[in-house]
C-alpha cells in the first residue's frame, strides 16, 4: 500500500468552479408569463394579499401585500408599474391609489382620486392613467379622471355620454373603448370611444347583448367582450368588435357563464418588468385540489358532499347584492384550476 506525502509549504492557487445541481424539469418562471392576483376572500376575511401564479408550472408565489384591503377596485399599468385605484371594503369606499414596483417588490402611495368609488374601469394611454365611471352608495358615475404624474394629481377630463357602473375598457388603436356597464336603471350594450385628440367622445355600434361586470380584451386588433350580467342572468356569450368594419359579430360561446366581480387579476411578464393588463379581470380562483376556494364573494367555507363541493357566492349586481348557490362536482381530488 502506498501513501503519497505532500511537502509542507505554499500551494499554487486552485481555481474552483461551482456547479449547481439543477433538476432537468425545474420550472424557469423568468421565461414564463404569470397571472397577478390581487385581494380576494379566503372564506373568513377579505385580503390585501398579492400573488403571482404561473399557469405553465402551476406555481403560486406570494408578493408584497397591498396597503389596503379593497374589493371592486380597478387596475392599470404605467411605466412598468401596476396601479390599483378605488374600490371598497365593508361600508367604506376608497379614493386611494397605490402602485406596485415589481423590481423592488414594494407598494407606493399615489395621488388620490377626486371621487370615492368602486367598480370603475381603469386603463393607461399615452403615459397617463384613466379612471372611468364606477360608483358608490350615492349612485353611478359618468366622470372620467386622468392621472398626470407630471403635475402629481388626478384631473377631470371629458365625461362619458352615459353613467357606467362596472363597465369594461380596453386600449385599441391608441384610443380607449368603454363597453357596457350599469347606469342605475339598466344594464347597457352601448359603446363609447375615447380619443384624447378629439374634443368629444364618439359612440360606436352597440353590442347585441347588455353587459355589466364583464371582461374586455384585445386580440389581433379586435375587441372581445366576454361574459358578464345582463340584468336578469349571467351571460356566456362572446362578442367581437372589428374597428375596420365598425361592427360586432358573435364569437365562440364560453362553456360557463362568467362575471367580472371578484379580485383583480392581470397578466404580467414573469420578469416583473413589463406588466400588461390585457386580461383585466378574471374573478374566480378555485383550488379544488386542496379543497380551498379563494374568492371574495364566498360567504362561507364549502362543505364537502360525496363527489361535490357546494358553496355560496355573494355577488354585486349593479348597486345591489344577491346570493347564488353553486355546486361543483369533482371526479377526483386531482382536478386542476
From TrEMBL:
Coiled coil: none
Domain of life: Eukaryota
Gene3D superfamilies associated with the record: Kelch-type beta propeller (2.120.10.80)
SMART domains assigned to the protein according to its UniProt record, in alphabetical order: Kelch
Residue stretches spanning the membrane: none
Biological process annotations from GO: response to endoplasmic reticulum stress
Stretch list, region Disordered: 1-29
Xref: PANTHER family: DCD (DEVELOPMENT AND CELL DEATH) DOMAIN PROTEIN, PTHR46034
Name of the protein in its database record: Uncharacterized protein
The species this protein was found in: Escallonia herrerae
Amino acid at each position: 500500500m502506498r501513501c503519497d506525502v505532500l511537502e509542507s509549504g505554499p500551494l499554487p492557487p486552485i481555481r474552483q468552479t461551482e456547479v449547481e445541481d439543477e433538476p432537468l424539469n425545474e420550472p424557469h418562471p423568468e421565461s414564463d408569463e404569470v397571472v397577478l392576483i390581487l385581494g380576494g376572500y379566503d372564506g373568513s376575511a377579505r385580503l390585501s394579499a398579492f400573488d403571482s401564479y404561473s399557469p405553465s408550472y402551476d406555481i403560486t408565489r406570494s408578493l408584497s401585500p397591498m396597503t389596503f384591503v379593497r374589493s371592486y377596485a380597478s387596475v392599470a399599468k404605467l411605466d412598468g408599474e401596476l396601479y390599483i385605484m378605488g374600490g371598497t371594503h365593508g361600508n367604506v369606499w376608497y379614493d386611494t391609489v397605490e402602485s406596485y414596483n415589481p423590481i423592488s417588490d414594494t407598494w407606493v402611495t399615489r395621488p388620490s382620486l377626486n371621487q370615492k368609488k368602486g367598480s370603475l374601469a381603469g386603463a393607461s394611454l399615452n403615459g397617463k392613467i384613466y379612471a372611468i365611471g364606477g360608483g358608490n352608495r350615492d349612485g353611478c358615475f359618468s366622470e372620467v379622471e386622468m392621472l398626470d404624474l407630471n403635475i402629481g394629481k388626478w384631473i377631470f377630463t371629458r365625461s362619458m355620454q352615459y353613467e357606467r357602473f362596472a363597465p369594461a375598457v380596453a386600449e385599441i388603436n391608441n384610443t380607449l373603448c368603454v363597453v357596457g356597464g350599469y347606469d342605475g336603471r339598466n344594464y347597457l350594450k352601448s359603446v363609447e370611444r375615447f380619443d384624447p385628440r378629439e374634443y368629444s367622445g364618439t359612440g360606436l355600434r352597440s353590442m347585441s347583448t347588455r353587459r355589466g361586470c364583464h371582461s374586455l380584451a384585445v386580440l389581433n386588433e379586435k375587441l372581445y367582450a366576454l361574459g358578464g350580467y345582463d340584468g336578469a342572468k349571467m351571460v356566456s356569450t362572446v362578442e367581437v368588435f372589428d374597428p375596420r368594419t365598425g361592427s360586432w359579430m358573435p364569437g365562440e360561446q364560453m362553456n360557463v357563464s362568467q362575471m367580472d366581480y371578484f379580485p383583480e387579476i392581470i397578466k404580467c411578464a414573469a420578469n416583473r418588468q413589463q406588466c400588461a393588463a390585457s386580461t383585466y379581470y378574471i374573478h374566480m380562483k378555485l383550488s379544488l385540489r386542496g379543497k380551498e376556494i379563494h374568492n371574495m364573494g364566498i360567504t362561507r367555507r364549502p362543505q364537502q358532499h360525496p363527489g361535490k363541493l357546494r358553496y355560496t357566492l355573494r355577488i354585486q349586481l349593479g348597486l345591489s347584492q344577491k346570493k347564488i348557490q353553486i355546486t361543483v362536482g369533482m371526479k377526483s381530488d386531482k382536478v386542476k384550476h
